[in-house]
């Protein structure tokens, strides 16, 4: 971003998904005005660091539209703390789930995070636009009609069954600040939460079982070789 021109009234961004950053490894980040208002984004995933950077660069009534990997909407830990901050500060206006296979280089679903400072209305508007596309060769594409429908629904906050809904902050807090669209629409949540500690325990158990099995196989081979003599 161009520091000489900040603050910005409008920011549109498609930052890299889940890239690494220095995070807590750089002690300056803890006191950086962009990040110090809440928890630092994890070192392994800079998605929320980009979000906080853009919020810092918005004017007092500015808006931002950020294309994001959907994991930022439901992952636990530091990202959950940052979502809580964004919700309590009433900075999130709308979250749109986009169709999969829109962008070159990835076929995953993505989402648009619409942020707005100085927002008077409470709550967050959720839109499931995952079916709003036309085929364009091997990729999907948002047609003019698709875009016009999505924009109109967001502009007027039209609530349509299984497509769009306004959710109050209390309900979001009761869901532990999950912001995935399918947590509030269609309820077929595609998110996959991974408990790292539990995963490591299972992995270590599997490794031990494999080692025991390998020893048994080796012993069987030794016994077979011995019986041939």
TrEMBL record:
Q: Where would I find the DNA methylase adenine-specific domain in this sequence?
A: 3-192
Instruction: Give the EC number.
Output: 2.1.1.72
Q: Does the keyword Oxidoreductase apply?
A: no
Q: Which residues form a coiled coil?
A: none
Q: Which domain of life is it from?
A: Bacteria
| Gene3D superfamilies per record | Vaccinia Virus protein VP39 (3.40.50.150)
Q: Cite the InterPro entries for this sequence.
A: DNA_Adenine_Mtase, DNA_methylase_A-5, DNA_methylase_N6_adenine_CS, Restrct_endonuc_T1M, SAM-dependent_MTases_sf
From the UniProt annotation, give the residues forming the signal peptide: none
User: Single Gene Ontology BP term?
Assistant: methylation
Q: Which reaction does it catalyse?
A: a 2'-deoxyadenosine in DNA + S-adenosyl-L-methionine = an N(6)-methyl-2'-deoxyadenosine in DNA + S-adenosyl-L-homocysteine + H(+)
Write down the SUPFAM superfamilies for this protein, in alphabetical order. Answer: S-adenosyl-L-methionine-dependent methyltransferases
In Gene Ontology terms, what is one molecular function of this protein?
DNA binding
Q: Which UniProt keywords apply?
A: Methyltransferase, Restriction system, S-adenosyl-L-methionine, Transferase
- Which one Pfam family would you cite for this protein? N6_Mtase
PANTHER family hit by this protein: SITE-SPECIFIC DNA-METHYLTRANSFERASE (ADENINE-SPECIFIC), SLR6095 PROTEIN
Q: What is this protein called?
A: site-specific DNA-methyltransferase (adenine-specific)
Species, as recorded: Mycoplasmopsis alligatoris A21JP2
């Amino acid at each position: 971003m161009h520091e000489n021109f900040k603050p910005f009234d409008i920011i549109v961004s498609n930052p890299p998904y889940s890239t690494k950053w220095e995070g807590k490894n750089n002690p300056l980040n803890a006191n950086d005005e962009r990040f110090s208002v809440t928890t630092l984004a994890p070192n392994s995933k800079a998605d929320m660091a980009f979000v906080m950077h853009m919020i810092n660069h918005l004017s007092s009534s500015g808006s931002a539209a950020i294309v994001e990997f959907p994991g930022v909407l439901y992952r636990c830990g530091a990202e959950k703390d940052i979502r809580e901050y964004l919700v309590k500060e009433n900075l999130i206006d709308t979250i749109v789930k986009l169709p999969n296979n829109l962008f070159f280089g990835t076929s995953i679903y993505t989402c648009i995070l619409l942020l707005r400072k100085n927002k008077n209305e409470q709550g967050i508007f959720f839109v499931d636009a995952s079916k709003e596309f036309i085929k364009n060769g091997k990729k999907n594409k948002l047609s003019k009609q698709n875009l016009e429908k999505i924009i109109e629904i967001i502009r007027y906050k039209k609530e349509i069954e299984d497509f769009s809904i306004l959710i109050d902050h209390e309900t979001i807090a009761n869901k532990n600040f999950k912001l995935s669209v399918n947590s509030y629409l269609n309820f077929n949540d595609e998110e996959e939460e991974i408990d790292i500690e539990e995963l490591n325990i299972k992995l270590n158990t599997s490794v031990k079982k494999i080692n025991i099995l390998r020893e048994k196989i080796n012993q069987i081979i030794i016994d077979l070789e011995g019986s041939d003599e």
